[in-house]
Fold these 2 entries.
Entry 1:
Amino acid sequence: MRRPFIAANWKMNKTISETQEFISGFVLTVKDITDVDIAIAPPFTYLTVAAEKLKDTNVMLAAQDVFYAEKGAYTGEISPIMLINIGCKYVIIGHSERRQYFNETDDIVNKKIKAAKKAGLGTIFCIGESLEDRESKKTFDVLQKEIEEGLNGVDSEGIVIAYEPIWAIGTGKTATSEQAQEAHAYIRERFRTLYGNKADEIRIIYGGSVTPENIDSLMAGKDVDGALVGGASLKVESFVKIINFKKGS
Ligand code: PGA
């Protein structure tokens, strides 16, 4: 049985005091939840304050990105060891916004995943097709390429994969539960060719305009194991409602 994984991706939002206020309230509200893995990925500059607030709670700290070198002359970058050092358990890698605005290629994503795993970080590895890909029936081709290149030479340990159709991110246009389940089932089949039976243990989470209103139907898909939540994770109330989803409705 795969344990649900729900993560907040705050992207480039909030101030320090908003971060503190959010986390103080949030950890109290979710403290008795024992059957869901919960993570929050604030911007880099708030990782320290978030780490303090999340200490000894059931909420894990995550980062939104990482660089692949261990240390050295890489102005502006943050290494996997630095993230471990500050208390991060997970890091988001290959988000479509990074691929789109910062020219992250599958090769760079692969290097980042390898470096993160080497340091002991869990990775939330994002893949997903554009609207154009979907309309020209290339969804599975895109997913296959991103999986094969992103996970080239990588074992399945510590990998959570986020299926995020680009057309659904921040647009209010969620994939239907059938579209999500279809893509997740495809991804699991690809994993089966890469990892054999371990494919059944890998969590595949959905991202793209997840809200308290659509989480139950998305989670009803048998291969949908959680969510990566952007906009709706910025308010305690809506993020908590998502975490309290009802499986099977
Ligand atoms: P969204 O973002 O929930 O605001 O669509 C999800 C994501 O990009 O991870």
Entry 2:
Amino acid sequence: MTTQLPSLCELTRDELALWCQNHGEQPYRADQIRKWLFGKRVNDFNAMTDISAGLRQQLAHEFVIFSSEIATHQKSSDGTEKLLLRLRDGETTECVLMREDDRRTICISTQVGCGMGCVFCASGLLGLSRNLTTGEIVEEILRLDRLLPPLERITNVVVMGMGEPLANLPHLLKALATLDEKGGLGMSPRRITISTVGLPEKIRELSQVGKPYNLAISLHAPNDTLRSELVPVNRNIGIDAILAAADDFFQETGRRVTYEYVVLAERNDSAEQARELAQLLRGRNAHVNLIPMNSVSELPYHDPAAERLRTFVEILESSGVTTTVRKRKGADIDAACGQLRLRAASANVEPITTVSASSQNPA
Ligand code: SAH
């Protein structure tokens, strides 16, 4: 039953070095193996040619390289690509590659579904199934990396796919560590952003890990009454506790915190709400990222009128709060995370082959 073997992607560099030692090999072999897996993008132990045939055989006897398979692969006309990965237990996860100038940014998921229940989000509609394992998160990254041509590399990672990253922090941190460890993708934590609904204790935990990850907090409302409607878990947390944790994060790491704000037409996009938000963030080392609602057919929320969005930005900026509006990517392939999985679930489709929406779109 080779399919039940663990994935090599589950192992950190130290764990693989230990495995090598336990098999009578020098620990540095782990770096050689990881160089093939991460740097040279091979999908077969036999291609690891500077490793002895015996060791390759031993690896193949105990591991598979990937435990997931690509269920669907979509390409957008703007160069965005999205993968739906089928996991061993039949669950699915999704991840996205975005291209912009020299940047190759990937967006990864940390859970199957989500338990936070934000009312405008597709991922929460089916609830939480389970956490992704370390290896499953690494597989998302490596599968996306393998979509790039030989000389291109992932430049940025945003942990903004399905799920609440801070609710699966141990697996996420282990997966991200493999990126900057020797033999990994050579990625600096400074180019990795973790987005959270705002779990104060976990934000403090993240500030203690000693790596300069960027933190993005999904605020979405300038007061607790509205936030608790849009982000139900807020009832037990509250904006004050989140801002206090974010301030501590900044104190500890020196990293400026980003506040995400999904802009929902006529719900949280008024001038009054912009002033309230400015009041809340003024004087903090904060940056606001406005995300116009990405429509989900199952949900009754829409993106704001251009004029209201412009006014919203002006009010924030004139109060000294730096603000950007996120560009939409991959709209024609349901690239807002959770949408592809949702569609697959509602249509009860069993996509087993690579489907590309690219025939009309040169990527
Ligand atoms: N659970 C984490 C990360 C996943 S969602 C979090 O809450 O931050 C990543 C971002 O996408 C969040 O800011 C989330 O609120 C936003 N988002 C979710 N659904 C969206 C939609 N339909 N349109 C625009 N942004 C959305």
